[in-house]
Design a protein that fits this description.
This protein is mainly alpha-helical. The protein has five helices and two strands. Helix 2 crosses helix 5. It is globular.
Length: 111
């Protein structure tokens, strides 16, 4: 297996702990979307304590990429819900897992 495949397997293992409905195909799609950021230590993680970062996820991923038209408050609640499912005590949340969970939450797994 290559580096990308190895990373997908690791991410899928983590993702299944957060949301059992996440598939390998979905993790591959998210991994390709993230590109090189998948391997960058800082860019591959989501800091739930950083309000600016959560706003970027809302604006750039949920609204632009997924095309969700919900209110900011509803999207923020979905992002928070994913963080809670991941475990707020988990300091280093993988961006790919968070994105996959959001895609699953909004039923956008076919993108």
């Amino acid at each position: 297996m290559g580096k990308f495949d190895d990373e997908v397997v690791k991410l899928l293992s983590t993702a299944k702990e957060v949301d059992k409905n996440i598939t390998e195909d979905l993790m591959r799609v998210v991994g390709k979307y993230l590109g090189p950021n998948l391997y960058n230590k800082d860019a591959s993680l989501v800091a739930y304590s950083d309000k600016d970062e959560l706003a970027r996820i809302r604006e750039n991923f949920v609204k632009k990429k997924l095309g969700i038209k919900d209110s900011d408050e509803d999207i923020d609640a979905a992002i928070k819900s994913v963080g809670e499912k991941y475990g707020m005590s988990v300091r280093n949340k993988k961006r790919a897992v968070v994105y996959a969970c959001l895609m699953n939450h909004y039923g956008k797994t076919s993108l």
